[in-house]
């Protein structure tokens, strides 16, 4: 069994790290807010370390799942970050949803230090993390993937090696772009049906089996109709993710009219106090008569 | 077996009528362009009539599947339309995607004449019509539904009685509103992935199983990547349908920002010559680098 | 002096008719709600008639300014409409903002009856009507324009003959399309400035003289900043006008993404109770922090 | 007369620096591409220096007008940047359109070094710079403004002190947000008019005097109608500016649906090869029938 380090025990990181411990690995954790690390060690064993660097010493592999680019930089490249402390030949796997730019930068910095680096954003949400059924979209060398895959199998049902460094993050952007329109249109459709006084269950029965179907339609129609939003994937995260995708599109020449507009509508949802609610709360900005 | 009439032997009407004949009913057909009616009778038997009125005389039930509101009015209420010729107690089922307003008007006119009327737009496309697996969303009285259901079972896998007159059409609008964003976002996502030089098959493998999934993503990702659009649901029809939905929203107070914007983008697709191509051809207006 | 008829004494029609009376013409008025016609006659003289037809008998010219297509049809072509009653060679001038289609239809029907017809939508608002400084964009024959121009000079500062029947209405659509984006962007800019805690007067001073300037920015910045909306051009009218333009674009092949989106945002404004307020009230749907 | 330094002799910087020299000041210039600096000195006198630091030594005031945030950082804070070389009490005025964040950062860094700092983005374009009639929107302390104002008067017709550090840049964002919708709607309106076969000059005559008027409508209607775009304010710059504004809105809580959508449409214009053309070239993406 391997000696592993996990940085960032948030909603996603904590259950992922648990699956790694459950698979028999020796796991050292670090979390900025120490109490979370203590609670995790109490529940799942292993050790905690006071800094990413301390946590990473001697590890075979270091995993991270923090917030955004700046946070990822903080736990890797800045003072007390893990990169300087990692041993040659060790593996670094990042599950944060971040930019392709930082993924590529970490790959370069890692190469200089003899590290194997994989950018590995996930989809499946907190429930997928808890159940160990995440989809992981990966960027990195074949060698890095060969090292990472057996470890990631502890918590995923699908691992796809897309391409070189950054390809995992770019694929996650594709994922979020798809969501933007499907979610908004499901919201528009639901409100339209409500305003038309249709029986929402019957409408769902009639339209959910065909071309109108989307994950968001199938999984959020009922909850939207009940004004229930306190779960799922947060608007704040979605704005971060769309901002990353829109920024990337500036350099690859793609146009994203719906994603850009959805991003603004999520901004309106934030203003309505929905920042930490599921993105289906964007329905709240649509008039109900 | 019943004595049935079918008005409008287009891409949808012809196979639906065939399933009715195949179920053993005695079918009289009418088509504006007579040659199509002749070809249909040659292939499937039955009789043809020169006008909707002539076709409807003595029928137990009359079905229609024509283009839009004006066409529906032409085959029902105007000179030589079927309504004046139908016998008391007969059933009228309309499969056209039209406005809820005309559906309600036909219900009222039908009531005056002692007819049972169902607005019954379908989803499933031409392939669903051929296979006899359409989803039908219905508006009308219980009595009308009781008469229509056994007949419609010949070509559908799902029949949902949503509510009173117009409820079928309104539900079809919900369906098209859902499609608007899912389709556009799948197109944006595909172009973004192309511009980012990602392996499209691998991206599909990574994102198609989760929250990014939609019918359009699952069924059009590959065809869009092959620039193949000569099949499916035509842009011209989609514009008609979105125009109906946007118009309805004016009266029920719903806001449809994505549907309205999608409608304009389909207009841009029409200008690129995609009017009769599948709506996934909207991807053509997105820059490819 | 001429014998004139005016149909529709609303916010626009009443002052226009007053200018015609003030120019010395003999004016007979009709208004659906009789009380308004009585009040007008009390104030400005002339006669009132119980129907458009009765009002139009023997008139040299008939003017109308009603709501939308259906209303225009009601006062012209339907039972008791003016067309049947007008004498040969008489002039019909319509100031309603309506579709180009009905304008062309009236031109055709008018021709059959030997009437001269001008579609003549206006801009300048109620204040322009009161002041007699409207801009009039006209469609019709040269002969019809020659007859209409001297009469319209009583209440306009600019009269432009754009082209044949319908060209006036189509030009009014151009006008409303321009407004759509300028208004929304002025609203976005104002809210952005408020949220950034900038001194709004100084911002106005800095940006109003250059490329950011628009009529809406110049005339609504201050009122928006004071949450004052009870004046000006109503959201309900704007939705009607945008709907006409979007419909027209379906047939002339233009794409109107901003106008279509603005139309939906005005729908959201209506849901906030702004239907009868100035269109700058669309700022209300933008978050203020 | 003062000893001045000018960093960045581009389309805007060169004429601004010329006005300063013309006002009798002793001007030292720096330009990354040395040839431009040589040409400027040949034409207008003064001296050139090989680095921003060298250029700034002993100057009473340093002006800059470079590309974007990163460029501004390069000429100020990085190695050979001017900040380290400037004498205590000297003034720094930046005319770059950049983020409010870097403006505030320069103000803080400047304060530490005893410098007076003004963020002073301009509007008026290259022609305004040539003519010396720029509008300048300023952020900084009263003391810094007192020092900057007499110098800036050499090339501006309007100088507004909006507020503290960053307020100039934030006001420039307000300016660009206003432009986004006015420009796009003028483009939609023009194409609509073309597709409707209207006489464009007459339409302009009819609509340009009222509520449809905007700077872009007044100044770009004719050029768009002639497909002339090789002048004015470049699409590439506009994308940078909108990106800054959209980013700022993320933190101040404003929603910018039109600006965000316009940004994407400018991206489509870039893909059509319009990056260096005037932003009115966005009309090219609209179908012409
Ligand atoms: N939630 C979801 O459904 C999904 C989330 N993701 C992505 O996964 C990532 C994590 O999300 P989630 O777990 O929900 O987020 P949480 O907010 O629950 O957790 C974030 C974790 O990152 C740590 N962290 C953040 N910033 C820093 C920093 N500067 N230095 C050190 N540690 C830091 C936090 O530490 P502390 O405890 O001290 O705050 C915490 O452990 C994000 O990129 C998100 O977009 C991807 C798919 C789904
Ligand atoms: N195609 C699809 O995938 C789907 C289509 N629909 C809807 O089904 C309806 C029919 O579509 P589809 O079959 O594809 O269309 P087609 O164009 O293939 O057929 C239209 C039929 O209507 C007839 N028709 C049209 N106008 C008139 C009129 N004024 N008077 C008499 N007959 C008329 C046509 O006659 P003629 O032969 O003389 O032209 C033809 O038989 C539409 O409302 C469409 O939106 C719904 C779901 C999916
Ligand atoms: N208000 C403005 O700033 C501008 C308005 N316009 C356009 O001018 C037109 C009139 O606007 P405005 O005067 O403000 O509207 P108002 O609502 O004030 O007046 C409408 C007038 O039309 C009459 N009317 C409406 N429907 C019918 C009908 N079916 N039969 C008979 N009479 C009818 C009304 O009669 P009753 O009194 O019985 O209701 C009333 O006299 C509209 O098309 C509008 O878009 C154009 C530019 C500016």
TrEMBL record, chains A, B, C, D:
Ranges where the 3-hydroxyisobutyrate dehydrogenase-like NAD-binding domain occurs:
166-285
Indicate the residues that form the catalytic site.
Answer: 172
Q: Name one GO molecular function term.
A: oxidoreductase activity
| The organism of origin for this protein | Rhizorhabdus dicambivorans
Pfam families for the chain: NAD_binding_11 (PF14833), NAD_binding_2 (PF03446)
Query: Per its UniProt entry, which superkingdom is the organism in?
Result: Bacteria
Would I find Oxidoreductase among this entry's keywords? yes
UniProt keyword annotations, A-Z: NAD, Oxidoreductase
Domain 6-phosphogluconate dehydrogenase NADP-binding residue range list: 4-163
Which named protein is this?
Answer: NAD(P)-dependent oxidoreductase
């Amino acid at each position: 069994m391997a000696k592993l380090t996990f940085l960032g025990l948030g909603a996603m990181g904590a259950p992922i790290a648990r699956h790694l411990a459950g698979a028999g690995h020796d796991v050292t954790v670090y979390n900025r807010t120490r109490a979370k690390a203590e609670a995790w060690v109490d529940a799942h064993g292993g050790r905690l370390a006071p800094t990413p660097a301390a946590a990473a010493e001697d590890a075979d592999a270091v995993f991270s799942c923090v917030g955004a680019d700046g946070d990822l930089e903080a736990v890797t490249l800045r003072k007390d970050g893990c990169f300087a402390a990692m041993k040659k030949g060790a593996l670094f796997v990042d599950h944060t949803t971040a930019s392709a730019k930082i993924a590529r930068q970490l790959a370069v910095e890692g190469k200089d230090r003899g590290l194997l680096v994989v950018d590995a954003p996930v989809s499946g949400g907190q429930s997928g993390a808890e159940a160990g059924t995440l989809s992981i979209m990966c960027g990195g060398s074949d060698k890095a993937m060969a090292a990472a895959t057996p470890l990631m199998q502890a918590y995923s049902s699908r691992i796809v090696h897309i391409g070189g460094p950054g390809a995992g993050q770019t694929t996650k952007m594709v994922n979020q772009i798809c969501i933007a329109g499907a979610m908004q249109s499901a919201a528009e459709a639901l409100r339209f049906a409500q305003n038309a006084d249709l029986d929402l269950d019957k409408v769902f029965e009639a339209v959910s089996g065909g071309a109108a179907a989307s994950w968001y339609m199938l999984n959020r129609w009922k909850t939207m109709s009940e004004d229930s939003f306190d779960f799922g994937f947060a608007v704040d995260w979605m704005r971060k993710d769309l901002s990353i995708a829109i920024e990337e599109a500036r350099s690859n020449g793609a146009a994203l009219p719906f994603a850009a507009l959805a991003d603004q509508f999520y901004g309106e949802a934030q203003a309505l106090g929905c920042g930490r609610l599921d993105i289906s709360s964007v329905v709240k900005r649509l008039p109900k008569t």
